[in-house]
Amino acid sequence: SSLNTTETATERPRKRRHSKRPIKLPPPPDGFQALLEGFALEVMRQRPADIYKFGATHFEDLLRRRQSGNGPTVNDEARAAAAADEDSAASPAAANKR
């Protein structure tokens, strides 16, 4: 064991014991999946050099559009995600994977 000359065995940080039980997370809010999918698609399309700056701008734009009444609502986003899922399931590439 490598102790610093100024620390004693009792001063070393203790290792945390991790539970083997899975953590129960609350369900995500309505529209969350669609929101993240939309962001992921824009990242893939635009390939921004600074993903954090891009994300900030992306979400600020969505918020501005929604507040002005021109942006999608949570239900619109959920419907769009469901439609995208249906489209991908109906595509020939998806049919070949089955």
TrEMBL record:
Please state every residue range assigned to the domain named RIIa: 30-67
Q: Where is the composition biased (Basic residues)?
A: 13-23
CDD domains named among the record's database cross-references = DD_CABYR_SP17
Give the Low complexity compositional bias ranges. 89-98
| A Pfam family hit | RIIa
The record's annotation in InterPro entries points to: cAMP_dep_PK_reg_su_I/II_a/b (IPR003117), DD_CABYR_SP17 (IPR047579)
- Identify the domain of life: Eukaryota
Name of this protein? RIIa domain-containing protein
Organism of origin: Macrostomum lignano
